[in-house]
Amino acid sequence: MPGDVVEDFGRSIVENVRDRTIASCRTRLQADSQHARSRKWRKLAEAGDSDALLQAVIPDVVDETLFYLLDAIDHGRLRLAAYDQDGKTVDLYEAGLSELGGWYVGGDWPKRYSKEPYVSPNDEG
């Protein structure tokens, strides 16, 4: 049986990342949503191209999930550490300056580091 720390971590991941991503994506599915991803998903669904819809939705949901993970770190709801090049432990909450989520969606991390195509959340695609 996992200890309290592991259970707390599991709860935090589910509440702050999984549940928030699902709720956000559900909102994107509402007919009156004007978010760029919502419009893109509706356009592909209306065209009846389920393959193209899935090709768009899968990376969008992954990116949304990563955003909520970084957002949880940014707001101290999920405390994680990383090791720097010298092996020193670095608290991501402190090092990230509450901007990890913003750097992910507004910056170029996916463009620079991903081997998969990246479409900005604001791109109508």
Task: Offer a quick outline of the entry.
Helix 1 packs across helix 3.
Which key phrases capture this entry?
2 strands, mainly alpha
What topology does this entry show?
Layout: H1 4-29, H2 36-47, H3 50-74, E1 81-83, E2 89-91, H4 92-95, H5 100-106, H6 109-113
Antiparallel strand pairs: 1-2
Helix pairs in contact: 1-3, 2-3, 3-5
Question: What features would you describe in this structure?
Answer:
With 125 residues, the chain is mainly alpha-helical. It has one domain (4-113). It is 63% helix and 5% strand. The protein is built from 6 helices and 2 strands, in the order αααββααα. The protein has helices spanning 4-29, 36-47, 50-74, 92-95, 100-106, 109-113; strands at 81-83, 89-91. The chain has a two-stranded antiparallel ribbon with strand order 1-2. Helix 1 (4-29) crosses helix 3 (50-74), helix 2 (36-47) packs antiparallel against helix 3 (50-74) and helix 3 runs antiparallel to helix 5 (100-106). The longest helix has 26 residues, at 4-29. The protein is globular and about 50 Å long. The mean pLDDT is 91.
